[in-house]
Amino acid sequence: MIFRVLILDELDYLLTRDEDVLYTLFDWSQKKKSQLIIISISNTLDFPEHLSPKVNSRIGNKRLFFKPYESWQI
Hints:
Elements: E1 4-8, H1 20-28, E2 36-40, H2 53-56
Parallel strand pairs: 1-2
């Protein structure tokens, strides 16, 4: 099986009042025959806590924390 990986950096900017964009993106990866893996990056440590239960139910809850870095380290 071949998986597609989508990396979303600055996920904070996709947060809208109705959360439709986030819900749709994360819902795609939950479909029965989905081959999509989403890795999302947020600058806000408590970003998932700001989401509605509807969207929160679609995201995985595995978090990795990184120390601040400089552009040359990328």
